[in-house]
Design brief:
The protein is of the alpha/beta class. It has 2 domains: 68 residues, Vcp-like ATPase, Chain A, domain 2 (Roll), CATH 3.10.330.20; 207 residues, Vaccinia Virus protein VP39 (Rossmann fold). It is 27% helix and 22% strand. The protein has 9 helices and 15 strands. The protein has a 7-stranded mixed beta sheet, sandwiched between helices. Strands 2-1-6-5 form a 4-stranded antiparallel beta sheet. Helix 2 runs parallel beside helix 3 and helix 4 packs parallel to helix 9. It starts with 22 loop residues before the first strand and ends with a helix. About 3% of the residues have low confidence.
Length: 349
């Protein structure tokens, strides 16, 4: 099923009576949440009893239903945040707080042409596709085929259909976009990868003057390396960096205080804008005189030496202590995501 004229892609998944193939979020009296995919005649079994899907299908969200043991659940469609955190995954997802900041910092607008790498599990792809709308385009580049399968299943499961402006390309993000994108044709570039500085020449080629480049990195070492590479390359404005920390609050009568746990560091965002042609950025004045970097400091960032080593160290999952996803686990997640997508495609408009 593809988008109908006058109906935004995925709108039928967000409104109207609950239908087979749609995902619903069940919340019990302790606040515990579970997400299921509705199916005609389906059942959801827990130690609390059996909840029949038919008691939900055809009704509006916001209802409270009971299973065969009288245990009650509040029924709502999952919001984008809920969907992202409960969907099948291979690579770690970009958290909703960071996806929202990326869309804002990159100034992604309806109708924009955006390039993304890597696609991971598709969490950021969903936010970018919502931002560009039906008239925009998103080209996602991914090195691992199993991650591309997971992302496609998750994205189509969320929208209930393929998005007309979305394409996934397999290949090295530093090279593949040069084969697909015309020079200067891309409005925004968003990179979520281990070594984004490897894509510097690619971004310089495809990004239009005034276009925004946002990179999502996990460690301070990556952040510093990318910032220095951008400064040394010319052609971009002075890079800006920040991170977002999210703290929820406990609300119970007069007992109003921050929760003991919070989603603190997940990643850094570094952004810069493309200058026209071979223009060089202005040298920003500083109040205090800053000493020039030494020859040793310059060599450390040259790509040929790092902290006294003869060669640049490997920027991989092992070096950065990142979680490595096995092919078996990724294939399992891909199969799960594809089942959700197939069920969603059967939802009537």
């Amino acid at each position: 099923m593809t988008g109908s004229p006058g109906r935004p892609v995925g709108a039928h998944m967000r409104t109207g009576p609950l239908q087979p193939g749609q995902r619903v979020q069940l919340t019990d009296y302790k606040g515990r949440k579970s997400t299921i995919t509705l199916a005609a005649g389906g059942e959801w079994h827990t130690h609390q009893g059996v909840l029949r899907h038919d008691s939900i299908i055809g009704r509006t969200e916001g209802i409270v239903v009971a299973n065969d043991a009288g245990y009650e659940y509040q029924v709502l469609r999952p919001l984008l945040n809920d969907y992202v955190l409960s969907m099948p995954r291979g690579a770690t997802v970009v958290y909703p707080k960071d996806s929202a900041q990326i869309v804002q910092v990159a100034d992604v607008f309806p109708g924009a042409h955006v390039v993304e790498a890597g696609v991971g599990s598709g969490a950021l792809s969903i936010s970018l596709l919502r931002a560009v709308g039906d008239a925009g385009t998103l080209h996602s580049y991914e090195l691992r085929e199993e991650f591309a399968r997971i992302a496609r299943g998750n994205v189509e499961g969320f929208f209930g259909e393929p998005h007309p402006g979305w394409e996934i390309h397999l290949g090295d993000a530093a090279q593949k976009p040069l084969e697909v994108e015309a020079p200067g044709s891309v409005d925004r570039v968003v990179l979520d990868m281990l070594a984004p500085w490897d894509c510097l020449e690619m971004v310089r080629t495809i990004l239009a003057p005034g276009g925004v480049w946002v990179s999502y990195v996990a460690t301070v070492t990556q952040l510093s390396r990318l910032a220095e590479a951008l400064r040394a390359s010319g052609g971009f404005t002075e890079p800006e960096a920040h991170e977002t920390m999210l703290r929820t609050w406990h609300l119970d009568g007069l007992a109003v205080r921050p929760d003991h746990r919070m989603v603190a560091h997940t990643g850094f965002l570094l952004s810069a804008r493309r200058l026209a042609g071979d223009q060089r950025p202005l040298q920003l004045k500083k109040r205090e005189k800053v000493s020039e970097p030494s020859a040793e400091d310059t060599a450390a960032w040259s790509g040929t030496a790092w902290q006294g080593e003869a060669e640049d160290p490997p920027w991989d999952e092992a070096s950065l202590k990142a979680r490595v996803v096995s092919k078996k686990k990724a294939r399992k997640a891909a199969g799960h995501a594809e089942k959700i997508a197939e069920a969603a495609k059967e939802v009537p408009e």
